[in-house]
Amino acid sequence: MSKFQSTFPENFLWGGAIAANQAEGAYLEGGKGLTTVDLLPTGKERFSFMLGKVDSLKLKDGVYYPSHEAIDFYHRYKEDIALFAEMGFKCLRLSIAWSRVFPNGDDEIPNEAGLQFYDDVFDELLKYNIEPVVTTCHFDVPIHLVEKYGSWKNRAMIGFYENYTRTIFDRYKNKVKYWMTFNEINMLLHAPFIGAGIIVNEEENKEQVLYQAAHHQLVASALAVKACHEISPNAQIGCMLAAGATYPYTCHPNDIWEAIDKDRESFFFIDVQSRGEYPGYAKRYFKENNLQIAMEKGDEEILKNNTVDYIGFSYYASRCASTDPEVLSQLTEGNIFASIKNPYLKASEWGWQIDPKGLRITCNHLHERYQKPLFIVENGLGAIDVLEEDDTISDDYRIDYLKAHFIEMSEAIKDGVEIIGYTSWGPIDLVSAGTGEMKKRYGYIYVDKDNEGKGTLRRIKKKSFYWYQQVIQANGENL
């Protein structure tokens, strides 16, 4: 067997990724307003909320909301960033909570305390030469915008978002070089409330509502690209896709076409953000399903002239597609997307299929399709970790998972794919977006907190902490 040879470039950005709503806590401190994720409980009710079936926009007594404290990054960011620096992070992907900067979303004047918090966080990162990679909107819509305007159903959101992004681009233009607009923008179609703060009413045509909201987000994203390029010409701004190649379950032509069709549901968003226009297949779909996308004069020009600089994406699993009803009865879980079980793959404790080769395939697909640099901004293994009496966590299964994915990432680079960096999800245990759990742990750093919110929040290094430290130090040469 030939020895593995790494090809990671010298300036490759190794790091990790967190999100404000899953890490910060302090949900009403420093003038922050209530946001969509602050209403998400744990348990079965959480999933119906995420899908847009929301019975109330008020907090309920006696309900545990995991985002309210999360892992208290708001108060502990210096400790956490020091740990990331100890691992040797070159970058940290994180998000700004819109409602920390504009508590209601439509405020005329930004909240200085919120702006200062992110100044302090970025300063702490830069102290250790860690590049901030910042998502402007990561499953995070101020509740006031949902109540008053219906969130992204309403075109008024474009102006509120543009004002917010111009504010943060101007404030942090000397501190942030890498930006992204909407996290996993394609989740809008699959989990509308968590993805875009959208409540789908029974009398509404769901597809009409969601694709119209998508248009509003796409125009807003393009205007953010425009603003970023104007305010911070040396910065790069990308989009962000929940990615993962879809395989045909068999070589039947119908299965092959079904796989193409499923991928297009997600590619649609990035096609517009990267190529600057609606693809032909989307126009056909709208026409055949009588979907009327309201556009204003100038929208198409805005989209065409303000495409993204790079493609950010998450990768957790590949998927399978079939048109056979019997096969379709065999579904498994996977980052909101249910999929047919692939008989050739193992799965995580949450049913997510583990497919390292799929990362190489996805990288190649995206690079060939868009011919722009890629940034892998989420990838990791959610698992139940056991804290031993001597404060050790032997998470060899996580090391094995990551090593296999890193090798395939290196192979993609050998294939000619340009990859800016890799930020694993999440480098420190945090609240799961999908389930609201803490026991579904991804981190190199254990956080002492359980699903009911009990624990000391103490940070403990896992075995993978030291392994990732060595990977970064060797720039992937030791895999």
Question: Can you put this structure into words, describing what you see?
Answer:
- With 479 residues, this protein is an alpha/beta fold.
- The protein has a single domain (13-473), classed as TIM Barrel, CATH 3.20.20.
- The protein is 39% helix and 14% strand.
- It has an 8-stranded parallel β-barrel with strand order 1-2-3-4-5-7-13-14, surrounded by 4 helices. It has a two-stranded parallel ribbon with strand order 6-8.
- Helix 15 links the parallel strand 13 and strand 14 (419-425).
- Helix 3 (73-87) runs parallel beside helix 5 (112-127).
- The protein is globular and about 60 Å long.
- The model has no long low-confidence stretch (mean pLDDT 94).
Mean pLDDT: 94
Helix content: 25-40%
The poorly predicted ranges are none
- When the domains are counted, the total is 1
- Give the CA-based shape: globular
Total beta strand runs: 16
CATH superfamily: Glycosidases
Radius of gyration: 21 Å
Largest sheet: 8 strands, parallel, barrel
Count of separate DSSP helical elements: 16
What is the CATH architecture term? Alpha-Beta Barrel
Alpha carbon gap, first and last residue: 14 Å
Under CATH, the topology can be stated as TIM Barrel
In which order are the strands of the major sheet placed?
Answer: 1-2-3-4-5-7-13-14
